[in-house]
Amino acid sequence: MTQPNLAPVPELYVSAESAQKLKAEAAQMLSWDLTPRQICDLELLMNGGFHPLKGFLTEADYNCVLEDMRLSWGGLWPMPVTLDVSEAFAETVEPGQDIALRDQEGVILAILSVTDKWTPDKSREAEAVYGADDLAHPAVNYLHHSAGAVYLGGPVTGLQQPTHYDFRARRDSPNELRAHFRKMGWRRIVAFQTRNPLHRAHQELTFRAAREAQANLLIHPVVGMTKPGDVDHFTRVRCYEAVLDKYPHATTHLSLLNLAMRMAGPREAVWHGIIRRNHGLTHMIVGRDHAGPGKNSKGEDFYGPYDAQELFRRHQDEIGIEMVDFKHMVYVQERAQYEPADEINGDVTVLNISGTELRRRLREGLEIPEWFSFPEVVTQLRRTSPPRSKQGFTVFFTGLSGSGKSTIANALMVKLMEMGGRPVTLLDGDVVRKHLSSELGFSKEHRDVNIRRIGYVASEITKNAGIAICAPIAPYAATRRAVREMIEDYGAFIEVHVATSVEECERRDRKGLYKLAREGKIKEFTGISDPYEEPLNPELRIQTEGFDVDYAAHQVLLKLESMGLIGAE
Predict the structure, then answer these.
(1) Domain Sulphate adenylyltransferase catalytic: where (predicted)?
(2) pTM of the entire structure?
């Protein structure tokens, strides 16, 4: 009799023949183009990674998950998996209707039979799932500023899995992993969940966990959406592959998990456990502050260091997978080895390098000692993270109309071009409006679209080691944050608030725009009839009253120099 963890898990796919017929029918249906996060969710729904879910949560299931971490029939499930859509699209859909779910190239992946449609209370969801309605939490920010306003629920019929062009040999569905374990004769398998590169401490941790559980090891990194600012998954997978031969081949396997993380701490740990059970695992390493998002808006950790382990332990039997406690490993210099921090006795020298310190050393081209990481990993990280003076970056000016943004931006561009070394592009608000956003008006929605377009272009420039200088008004804090997250995946983002008062901007106004706005002849004018949300913590705040343009541009240069972005070659 096959062990439960090795028997096939139910999938939501229909046969190839049925899929062909349903695709022809689905081509005539109303369709929704899935976001990257929704594609991750749909893939794990269809391949059994989210078993026992049979589709996106209904309203009843959603409410039970929020309140009790359970589905309406009582099964343990800690995370809302919903299909969020725009209000405009929701108006065209009614329960009882089937809609086609397409990827971003328009390929039909599945059919959703809509049973529920509702408008959620997102603040309630944030409090219940993430513990606080705090925009410093990346998932809460996503919930309020990226997710659609309306949720659809209902069963999913899977037609085909999403296509992945990268690392295809490393991607296993739950049933493919279970088949691999059966073939290898593995009965006990411990999962190492990670969204970071593997260093020597991780290797020692995984060795100890496998010995403790008397189990084989599955290195199971997340390659879907993780936390903004994380090392991209292409680099991370190259790092994993570079050190795979440091592990015993017969007892270790590397497989990639296309999961969109929510960074929900304790609830996420339980969720990860259920997902790993579905992939055939019997044990899982649960870390200190597992899936924690960092600091809240008060500068405190969102979750306690062991909250995730405690919640996992409470539900361990129902999850169906055994927890292996994460040991915080530190390097003991005298013994030249890694040991658990809580087991070290005596007067010894303990060495450690934090993630922040590692990023600083990479940024500044400093040595990374071999006791900390493998040379093969450091080589891969240096390919992706050259010294800061070689990386692209974006300087993002924001301020009222007439504050001096464009003038300072032009002066900065000339100074950077004079220095040479990297291409410099100025994305001025008026010029972008003319060439990139000529069809847009000045409503809040159109302003957001315009700023996101600027952010996208700047992110591409930054990704390719250029310098982007942006000078829009950008009145809304949420949109500026979205642009920051877009760019910080590739390089530094320097927000410069040109903090000129409304009175001074009016005095300088050569076009007479403020006068027309006060007379009501220009609607939705920032600073008069539409709000300007001042940046709370910009990298630089410049006062232009009483100072000339050259001085202001020089302040930006000094800031760039202090950040290591420019300097003597």
Answers:
(1) 171-383
(2) 0.79
Rg over CA atoms, the chain: 26
**Cα three-residue angle 501-504-505, rounded to 5 degrees:** 85
- Give the residue-averaged pLDDT of 439-462: 88
User: Would you say 183 is a known binding-site residue?
Assistant: no
403 marked as binding residue: yes
Q: Answer yes or no: is 113 a known binding residue.
A: no
Cite the active site residues. Answer: 194-196
Largest CA distance in the chain: 84
Q: Is 404 annotated as a binding residue?
A: yes
Amino acid at 188: R
Listed in sequence order, the residues at least 6 apart from 270 whose beta carbon sits closer than 8 Å to its beta carbon are 69, 76, 78, 311, 312, 315, 319
Tokens of 549: 């343009």
Backbone angles phi, psi at 221, to 5 degrees: -75, 150
Length of the chain: 569
Please give the distance of CA 381 from its chain centroid, rounded to a whole number: 19
Q: Is 438 annotated as a binding residue?
A: no
Residues 6+ away with beta carbon under 8 Å from 250: none
pLDDT (average), residues 561-569: 80
Q: Which domains does the chain have, with CATH numbers?
A: 16-158 (3.10.400.10), 168-257+263-330 (3.40.50.620), 388-562 (3.40.50.300)
β-strands 150-158, 108-113 pairing: antiparallel
Return the H-helix or E-strand segment holding 311: helix 307-314
| Chain segment 102-124, per-residue pLDDT in tens | 999 999 999 999 999 999 999 99
Please tell me the predicted confidence (pLDDT) of residue 568.
55
Q: Which two tokens stand for residue 18?
A: 């049925």
Would you state the structure tokens that stand for residue 556, as one six-digit string? 């930006």
Per the CB < 8 A criterion, the answer to whether 105 and 54 are in contact is no
- 96 exposed, middle or buried (CB, 10 Å; 0-12, 13-18, 19+)? exposed
